[in-house]
Amino acid sequence: MLILIVVLVAVAVIVLVSAAFVVTGRRRALPRPPDSAGVPTPLAERPAQPVEAAAASAPPAAEEAPTTAPAASPLTAPAEAVEAPETIEAPGEAPRLRDRLGRTRSLLAGYLTSVRARDRIDDATWEELEEALILADVGVGLTARILDDLRGRVKQEGINRPEDLVDALKGELVGILQGDRELHLTAGATNVWLFVGVNGVGKTTTIGKLGLRQVRQGHRVVMAAGDTFRAAAADQLELWADRVGASIIRGSEGGDPAAVVFDAVQHASARHADVVLADTAGRLHTKTNLMEELKKVRRVAERPPGSVSEVLLVIDATTGQNGLIQAQQFAAATGVTGVVLTKLDGTAKGGIALAICADLGIPIKLVGLGERPEDLVDFDPAEFVDALVAP
Questions:
Q1: Ramachandran region of residue 159, left (φ > 0), alpha (ψ -120 to 50) or beta?
Q2: 203 CB-near residues (< 8 Å, 6+ apart)
Q3: Per-residue pLDDT tens over the stretch 167-203
Q4: To bridge 368 with a disulfide, which of 186, 246, 301, 342 should be the other Cys (CB 3.0-4.6 Å)?
Q5: CB-side exposure of 54: number of CA atoms within 13 Å?
Q6: How far is CA 45 from CA 40, 72, 355, in A?
Q7: Is the CATH number of domain 190-336 3.40.50.2000?
Q8: Which of 384, 349, 390 is nearest to 136 (CA)?
Q9: At what angle do helices 102-117 and 162-177 cross, to 10 degrees?
Q10: Cα separation of 345 and 316, whole Å?
Q11: pLDDT exceeds 90 at position 331
């Protein structure tokens, strides 16, 4: 009996000891809770995460940032700097005409250097001036008129030095290029600026650059994708509108351009925008029906509350005298108020500027000298001529 009691006691002791070990093991398996201050487990005690995984878990950059920035955590890496949106980009430095008219300048430089080197004004002097102006695409007719006026000044003023002749030539050229170069914007009105010209001259890019300038000046801008025949034109204009911070109105492909411009004017009026920059189709200027279409667009744009304050003809300077033909066609159809001469930095035909102003009486208001927004600059006749003629 005694032996049985001893055996039962031993079994009981063994059971109790085993239970204690099990409980202890379970307690060690549980995670350690945070202390009373709420400090999470130190980073050193946590398993490391791959950098790629952390980057994949981050929200996409395109998502809208929260209104209030979250408090910094000791476990999170500092956020990368977010680039400023292009709508508030600081303007760069505008280029000088003298620095960008290299091709036309170099063409004239040889002739004018030869003229200046002469000891007197003779027939060879006039021939060199004539050849220089024609090669610069001033045009035969205008070149003849310029030289006739110059001969009159030489006789009247007693000019006998070639250097003084070149100075007199500069004065003639500046006089031809004078005109109303202001971009008109009436305060309190729904201004409409129409952009016309053939395909490939840079209308859409010009609208984008000019829109950026207007926004920087504090104006509210609406863009109208009136070239409904090229989907790429509307897409490109939409990219510029996003960049600039402007509204954009576009229609269906192949739709009525006048309807797009009408909707843009109504939209601008309702939101008290200052100006509507309206793109138009730019197919061949020799098509009569296209000129009629542009006339309709202008009539619609002028309906109240719209007010067409500028019709800007965009011309590629590299086309030379063909640009003059374009100007004649579009001026007759739409009443062009000014010219934007693009790609002037890439041509030796800068003399087309003189032909446009002299033959059509249309002032050049802007010139394109490169790809940057700042490379669309106001046209200055004196600076332009000095860039071409000065030694």
A1: beta
A2: 195, 196, 197, 227, 279, 280, 282, 314
A3: 999 999 999 999 999 999 999 999 999 999 988 899 9
A4: 342
A5: 9
A6: 10, 21, 80
A7: no
A8: 349
A9: 150
A10: 11
A11: no
The secondary structure of 147-160 as a DSSP string is: HHHHHHHHHHHT--
The two three-digit tokens of residue 238, written as one number = 């939409």
Length of the chain: 391
Phi, psi of 389 (to 5 degrees): -105, -30
Tell whether the torsion through CA atoms of 25, 31, 33 and 35 is positive or negative: positive
- Paired tokens of 124: 């060879």
Q: What angle do CA 275, 281, 284 make, to 5 degrees?
A: 140
Reported as a single tens digit per residue, the pLDDT across 217-255 is 999 999 999 999 888 999 999 999 999 999 999 999 889
30 has a pLDDT exceeding 60: no
Tokens of 326: 């374009």
Q: How many CB atoms lie within 10 A of CB 7?
A: 10
pLDDT, residue 40, reads 37
Cβ atoms of 185 and 213 closer than 8 Å: no
Say which residues have a Cβ less than 8 Å from residue 44's Cβ, sequence separation at least 6. none
Chain centroid to CA 313: 17
The one-character DSSP state at 166 is: H
Q: 194 with 296: CB under 8 angstroms?
A: no
Tens-digit pLDDT profile for residues 248-301: 999 998 899 999 999 999 999 999 999 999 999 987 655 668 888 999 999 999
CA 126, chain centre distance (Å): 42
